[in-house]
Structures are given as structure tokens and as C-alpha cells.
Amino acid sequence: METLVSQDVELAVALLRRGEVVALPTETVYGLAANALHEAAVEKIFALKNRPKADPLIVHVRDIEALEALEIEPPLWAERLMRLFWPGPLTILLPKGPKVPDVVTAGLPRVALRSPQHPLFQAVLEQVEFPIAAPSANPFGATSPTTPAHVLSYFSGQIPLILDGGPCSEGIESTIIGEEGGRFFLYRPGALPREAIEEALGAPLFSKTTAHSAGPVIAPGQYSRHYSPHKPLLYGWKRLPEEPRASLVYYAPEDFEEAHPHRHILTTTDNPKEAAQNLYAVLHACDKEPTDYILVQQVPLTGGLNEALHDRLRRANARALFTIGHSTHAWADFLALLKKYEISALIDIRKKPYSKHVPHFSQGILQKALHEANIAYDWQPNTKNLRQRVEKLLSEHLHVVLLCAEGEPHRCHRYQLSDELSREGLVIFHILPEGKLVLHRAPISLPLGESA
Ligand code: TXA
Ligand code: MG
User: Fold this and answer.
1) Rounded distance between C-alpha atoms, residue 228 and residue 117, angstroms
2) Which residues contact 157 (CB under 8 A, 6 or more apart)?
3) CATH 3.40.1010 boundaries in the chain
4) Is the model's pTM score more than 0.90?
5) How far is the CA of 370 from the centre of ligand 1 (A)?
6) Ligand 1 centroid vs 171 CA: distance in angstroms?
7) Range list for CATH 3.90.870.10 in the chain
8) Residue 277 vs residue 257, higher pLDDT
9) pLDDT at 223
10) Residue 166 predicted with pLDDT over 50
11) Is any ligand 1 atom within 6 A of the Cβ of residue 193?
12) Which of 182, 257, 343, 345 shows the smallest number of beta carbons within 10 Å?
């Protein structure tokens, strides 16, 4: 199948009427669209995205009046928000009514409703006689698309049409809210800042964005790893280390140390709206660069749109672990490295936490220095218990490092363990003595810095 990229609204309408899936532009991100009342068409969306059937889809309508045909009557609070913010990036969960098929809501009692603002999507909705189900047009878990080229990179040859609406003006998905037991909840921060909604509601929005491990899907936060580029991404740096093998993403311009060929800035004017517009395009660009991984600076937690930016980056963040060896470092250099990589917890995995070659790395001295540097210390020579400790520390710290005794590479803990841990889904970064960060490529047991 050839994928046409065009502005042909009539063609999009004809394809949708035939139960086909097409990509449509919205003001937030591109969507993979189908007739929401046509079960087989909706099934195709799930198959294309490789999306779990338990993850429901947003239903897009022309306006509030279109809800009547779905036999959905919005309560007063919802109607008020719709009148204020539709068409626009606000999705509201309401009791589903009999018309919406279960496959769309994944069997849940509520349906997610939104009226998109993009003129081409609106032109389609004006002509079709049904609402349109559309998730973001990316494979499940991958970075959302904000241009036709992004959509092509995922679905070229698999869908007949991408309706070309240019780059998305908002660049980040809609905000999802709903009501439960008289309280209002924010299920996904998005392009409409929470503050605007709270003001309109005259009530606070409680955050319900993190997953509970048991129970049904209530909202998107259920899947914590999401919005991810192909390359490992490490988010949350106060100060980005200028690694040559990294794509660097700064929130705003900084005093850079040196020229770096793969540096990106989300906003040059300190404008959250501009940062949101750029976020996914920058992540797509990073994926294409000749680099091994992506480092992203912490977004200022100033509310507004930055709440959504922070949320997406947090979800794109890899589960990562660092390693460092004890032998080649002078003490001050070692501490400087921990500082550079913003390490806040160290797990000492040496069988013997001392060595006559590196007396200054004896446990007592080490512990004292780490304590002074405000870095948590843990001794875990038994690798059986290690995994559990790692999980615990990763839930409390952004950057955790394993301290290993260097030795012959094929005997070195640092590599054998790294192979094991990366097989279990952790991304491992080795901190080299000369102050570089190297991504571990499993399975290897090679000397430092050489990749298999
Ligand atoms: O901006 C947007 O909302 C874009 C554009 C295309 O409209 N759409 C979008 O869809 O982001 P998607 O599927 O990538 O994310 C929607 C999220 C899903 O993660 C899903 O879990 C949640 O909304 N959702 C959809 N229907 C729901 C429902 N009935 N109950 C709870 N959560 C729902
Ligand atoms: Mg999505």
C-alpha cells in the first residue's frame, strides 16, 4: 500500500466511510483515526499501533451538539468546560452511553471525549456522520508525532493517507480530566494547563496520573513507560554533562561549556508553549543523530504547560543504573565524577570493601566522604539481593551507581552484572575513569570503552 500525504479532505472522508484508518492532524499531535462506531475499523487502530486492548481510545466529535447522537448528556460542569475550551486540547471522561462500542473504551464505563481544533480535522468531522476514534499516530509506547514525516516514519506503507496539516501548533497531547464522587481529577496533564481548568471549575483538580499496579485501567498513567524515543533517554539533569556520545536537550539557553554537535534547546525565549511545540520534534531528531543516548535537562517546575512537559519526559525516562570502578581514581576525581553525573546513591558491590591497592577506597573512609557529599551508601556484596536493593534505591533516587572493583575485564563484576541487569530491562551506563559516560551494550565482557 502506498501512503499518500495530501490535504485532500474528501479522500480522508471517503476512506473513513469505508472503515479505513487514516492519519489526521490535530492541534496537539497527529492521530490515527477511524470511525468510532465501526468496530472492525477501531480494531485496525489497535493492530497498527500494537496497542493493548485494555488501553481505550479518545472519541473526537465536532462539537458539544454532536454528543446528542451518542446519547451522552454532559453534566453542567462538563458542559461549561466544553463551551469554554472546545474545540481545543481538553478531553473529558463521561459515562459512555449505549452507542459507543466497548472496544473503544476497553470495556470501561466512561468514554473520553474531545473536539479537536485543527481546521482539517474539523473539516472531516463536518462531513462524516460518525465520531472519530483517534489515538496518537505512533506505535504503542513510542514518541508521539507532530509532523506528517513523523507519522510516515512509523506507518509508511501501512495506511492509505496522512492528511497534511503541517506541524502541530500545541505539540503535546490534550489534557484529560473527569469527575469521580464529586471530585475532579487530572488523569493526564496536557496542552490545556490545569490552572485554566481549575479556574473554570472553581475547584481543584486532583492528580491521578500514576499507575496502581492492580485494578482496571482508569486513565493513561497506567502505562508508566511511554512517549519514548528508540534511544535510551535520561531525564532530570540539573546540569547536563557534555557527553560526546549523547544528544543533549536543554530546556532554555545556558552558558555552554563547549561546542557540541548534537545540542537542542526546547525554547530560546523561555516560553513553555514553544517548548511544548518542539518537544516531540526534538526527540525524533535525537533518534536520528549518530549518538547512543539522549540526556534531557530538568524542566522548570513552574506549573502551566511545563507540568505536561515534565510528565512526558518523566515517562520517557529510561530505568537506568550507572557503574563506576574503584581503582583508577584519585579520591577527589572520584567524588567529582559522582557530582558530574548527579549520583545520589551508591551501592558498593565489592566482595571485599577495601584493597591494598586502593586504601583510600576502604569502606570506612568511603562512607564518611559520601555522607559528607550527601550521597547514600549501601554495601551489597551478595548479588542475589542486589536486584531488590536496586529497585528500592531507584524508586527514591534519580541516579544510582554501582561501585565495583576493577579487575580483568572478563572477571570484572561490572560487565557480567551489567549483562544480567540489562537483560532484565535496565539501561546501564558506565562511568569511565577519564570522565566519560558509555552505554553498556549487552552482552559484552570487554575492556572499558570498547563496544561489541
Ligand atoms: O491530544 C490528544 O489527546 C491526541 C489527539 C490525537 O487527539 N490523542 C491521544 O490519544 O493522545 P492516546 O490514545 O495516545 O492517549 C489517550 C489516553 C490513553 O492513554 C488512554 O489510556 C486514555 O487517554 N483514555 C482514553 N479513553 C479513556 C477512557 N474511557 N477512560 C480512561 N482513560 C482513557
Ligand atoms: Mg499516545
Assistant:
1) 26
2) 1, 2, 3
3) 320-448
4) yes
5) 44
6) 15
7) 4-207
8) 277
9) 54
10) yes
11) no
12) 182
**Cβ atoms of 311 and 189 closer than 8 Å:** yes
CATH 3.30.470.20 fits 4-207, yes or no: no
On whether the CB atoms of residues 34 and 42 are closer than 8 A, the answer is yes
Q: Which ligand is nearest to the CA of 223?
A: 1
CB of 375 sitting under 6 A from ligand 1 = no
Ligand 2 ion local residues (Cβ < 5 A): 136
Confidence of residue 442 (pLDDT cuts 50, 70, 90): low
Mean pLDDT of all residues in the chain? 91
Can you tell me the mean pLDDT for 275-290? Answer: 98
Kindly give the number of the ligand 1 atom that is closest to the alpha carbon of 33: 6
The string of pLDDT tens digits covering residues 64-79 is 999 999 999 999 999 9
Decide: 241 and 340 in contact? Cβ < 8 Å. Answer: yes
Please indicate whether residue 145, judged by its CB atom, sits closer than 6 Å to ligand 1.
no
Pocket flag, ligand 1, residue 176 (CB < 6 Å): yes
User: Which of 57, 105, 146 to mutate for ligand 1's pocket (most ligand atoms within 8 Å of CB)?
Assistant: 57
**What would the pLDDT profile of 113-162 be if each residue is shown by its tens digit?**
999 999 999 999 999 999 999 999 999 999 999 999 999 999 999 999 99
Q: What is the best residue among 26, 27, 58, 315 to mutate for testing ligand 1's pocket, by most ligand atoms within 8 Å of CB?
A: 58
The third-level CATH classification (topology) of the domain covering 320-448 is: Cobalt-precorrin-4 Transmethylase; domain 1 (3.40.1010)
The string of pLDDT tens digits covering residues 14-38 is 999 999 999 999 999 999 999 999 9
CB of 219 shorter than 6 A to ligand 1: yes
pLDDT at 313: 97
Closest listed ligand to the CA of 146: 1
